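User: For a benchmark we're assembling, each entry needs the component sequences followed by a predicted structure for the full assembly. Here are entry 17's components. Please fill in the structure.
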Amino acid sequence: MKPDMPGWKDIPRGGLILEAGNAFQYRTGDWRSRRPVWQKDRCKQCLLCWIFCPDGAVKVEEGRVVGFDYDHCKGCGICATECPPAASAIEMVPESEFAK
Amino acid sequence: MSVPADVPEVKRMAVTGNEAVALAMKQIEPDVVAAYPITPQTDIVQYFSSFVADGLVQTEFIRVESEHSAMSAVVGAAASGVRAMTATSANGLALMWEVLYIAASTRLPIVMPVVNRALSGPINIHCDHSDSMGARDSGWIQLYSENAQEAYDNIIQAVRIAEHPDVLLPVMVCLDGFIISHALENIEALSDATVRRFIGEWVPAASLLDVDRPITVGPLDLYDYYFEHKRQQAEAMMRAGKVIEEVAEEFAAISGRHYGFLEEYRMDDAAIAVIVLGSTAGTAKVAVDSLRKSGIKAGLIKLRTFRPFPAGELRRALAGVKAVAIMDRADSFSAMGGPVFAEVRSALYEADHRPPCFNFIYGLGGRDVGLEDIIEVYTYLQQAEEDPEGLVTVHYLGVRE
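Assistant: Structure for entry 17:
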């Protein structure tokens, strides 16, 4: 909990969220225990990872995968499972590996 | 059914409590009613559904498969910004349980008649307060009614209380099963136009159906915000008292009938007092009159609001009293008395003068309570006033030993 969060008198009543599109502000990447790591040179650009990602966390620019949105990727691993075996361009790596 | 199709002017009529409530609902004409039948509430929604079928109201009537769904549908409707009502009893209320809390914490101004019936088990269809007393901490305002007139009046006032911007909490209007719900009484109904004017238009601050201002209702609310929302809810209940008084004052102006948090009956010089809620108050008033004739300074306090609990008013009303009996039509199985007793005794802790308090649990599962039972309670209080030694705090009145 951050020290400057608003008090009970200053927040919308009853848990209402009055701002649309607010899910973007929720950094669900905090939940992740395994991180998908994309290997650009192995990727065939089939976009299956982008289709199957339940969270829109696969970043695509001009029709091509360019990486992951780690602020919102929850680390479910569906992208790594769906990536065709011939490519195997996505590896799930424990977050602990990055904390070192 | 003796509910007229329209009430153009103030009208005296003989109706059952359930008919009186159905009439109030018809005059309120909520946008949505979702309900499931359960004895002894069934007639309310049965009558109301016939008003819908006959085109007397424009209400959307949702036939649901359970009370859990009824309350869920009403929550959804209320979140969309319309007036929504349902009605239930006993196990129906129990099946609504989790959604009761959601309605209150989402701050939805839903009004629900609760026709008090003993909660199973053992299974029983008759009156006691175990159903609504069990829901006393769900965050709903609770108003209790002594008779059909009060049930009718409370329903109409409940709309205004619930929708007040300082409150925005759901309201249960409780009436005793069969004793009020099915007995025929004379009531004075307000005209349709008077009720419509009194309740006015409901303009919610936010609506799920407002596509220009999309909102989220009921999101996940964890350790960083949940507590703040609960604090808001507590504040709303604290503010509700003032609103209940203001609405009662306005209601008196249109009806001539005055309501407060509690009704004091012959309390001015009372030495001993009984506190009761619901229909038993009627019997207790007759008992007080009879004791007064014998020179006994007996008084009665009838609680109308149980949530919020009128602690200050009770302390004031009991200031000169030497002994108090609190009657509970439900047990809380705390091994120290019923729910009303616990609240009253807690309220008196801050009083300058703390009279001895006794609890009489009575009428469970519809066990009749007569004049002689109430006299017995006052007789016990007289004994307490004279010689308080060796008295028992919690009693079960009218149970076979």
